[in-house]
Each structure stands twice: as C-alpha cells, then as structure tokens.
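wait is this the right file?? whatever heres the structure
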C-alpha cells in the first residue's frame, strides 16, 4: 500500500507545492489551491480531477475511485490507496497539481 510519506514526498516534489493542515488532515496546495488531501483513515486520498477524468476513473474502477456524496458537485475523487497502482497515483497527483498550478509553472516543469 502507498504510504502517507510516499504521497508527501511526491507531492512536495512538484513545484510550488506546500503542505498545509486542512481541518486536521494534510493537504497539498499551490498558492493555497488544494489539489490533494490525505484522509484521516490513512487508506484514502482525496484528489482534484477534471469532471471528465473523474467520470472516467470512477467508471473504470469504482472499487479504487469513489465520489462520496459530499463531493458529488465538486471535481474530487477518493482513491483507495491499498488498491491503486503507485504509478497511476503519481500520474493522478500530477494531473491534480497541473489543474491548480500556474500554467507557466506547469509548462516549465514539463518541458
């Protein structure tokens, strides 16, 4: 299973990411815009996605990717850490980061 430390290490490697407490949970942000939150259960992670990506992932594997009712109108998905592929999680964290990071920062990091 992917650990909180592994999530933290990867998230903080992305430019301009800060770790900030969010109601007692570690959140990862760029310029105060949240893109991921480690859940208190320690086995799931809330990640920001586009509406299309959220629909695709929750349809593809609903055991791994879920949308709790309180997030039904928001573009976030809960990822079950014991079930998700580590490389897929890195890809999703990158996508989430790129949604909130300034475009020039994303472009300079990717190229």
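ok assuming it is, sequence goes like this
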């Amino acid at each position: 299973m992917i650990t909180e430390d592994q999530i933290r290490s990867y998230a903080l490697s992305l430019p301009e990411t800060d770790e900030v407490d969010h109601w007692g949970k570690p959140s990862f942000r760029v310029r105060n815009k949240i893109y991921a939150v480690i859940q208190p259960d320690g086995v799931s992670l809330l990640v920001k996605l586009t509406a299309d990506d959220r629909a695709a992932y929750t349809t593809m594997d609903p055991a791994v990717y879920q949308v709790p009712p309180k997030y039904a109108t928001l573009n976030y998905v809960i990822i079950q850490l014991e079930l998700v592929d580590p490389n897929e999680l890195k890809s999703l964290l990158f996508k989430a980061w790129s949604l909130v990071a300034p475009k020039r920062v994303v472009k300079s990091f990717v190229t």
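The longest helix spans residues 86-100. so i think its the right one actually
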